[in-house]
């Protein structure tokens, strides 16, 4: 078989959105597919494309598989723009950090003759710095059969741990998993500069977690905290419990005479 015939057998994938995550997708799909990339903002024209061909929106949307790597806040706009160019049977995939809202947008805005797959790679450029094998991705098949084949590709070829779920189940868990991580990271970043010399192992691990998300685009935080319908409840419970801890500490402080160590502190030092 000639090299041209091998090239023809490679599937063609259109990637719409070439920010940090769009480039990460391109990097790992490039060995397996012919890629056409389009960024609505035309950002970073000199960015590494890993062999992908830059093209216009219509050409990217005419590919058999179209991946929407755009912020959730812009998804409805992009869906409306690509809908006239999609071919029957096209598999449209999103990679948003929430799933209920993007799936609803795609169901409402895409033609009935395309297939829809919601995904959420549970990693980003920072956590994927050493490769993606063994990392997790949530997959929500919405319509059609090709989504299941895509999930098999993710598992068998890219070696990802595929979690098949529903948009609602995803968002319920992500509200805590991502919502708390990004919330705590946002607060700790605001408190900087923090100690870097006399640190404990637990503090270092905490700051490693912060570093994994500190450079995420602001749209990621907004999607996680505002577009997830379950995030507000998680935030409220977190702040209520934090306030309770503060109230408990204030009561303990009030109960100890000035200049005297609290019983808790005394016992801690006695057992050290």
Automatic annotation (TrEMBL):
InterPro entries tied to this protein: 6-PGluconate_DH-like_C_sf, NAD(P)-bd_dom_sf, PDH_N, Preph/Arog_dehydrog, Prephen_DH
Gene3D superfamilies: NAD(P)-binding Rossmann-like Domain
Residue ranges constituting the Prephenate/arogenate dehydrogenase domain according to the UniProt record: 11-272
Region (Disordered) residue spans: 252-272
Keywords: Oxidoreductase
Biological process, per Gene Ontology: tyrosine biosynthetic process
Single Gene Ontology MF annotation: prephenate dehydrogenase (NAD+) activity
SUPFAM superfamilies, sorted: 6-phosphogluconate dehydrogenase C-terminal domain-like (SSF48179), NAD(P)-binding Rossmann-fold domains (SSF51735)
UniProt-recorded name of the protein: Prephenate dehydrogenase
The species this protein was found in: Methylobacterium pseudosasicola
Upper taxonomic lineage: Bacteria, Pseudomonadati, Pseudomonadota, Alphaproteobacteria, Hyphomicrobiales
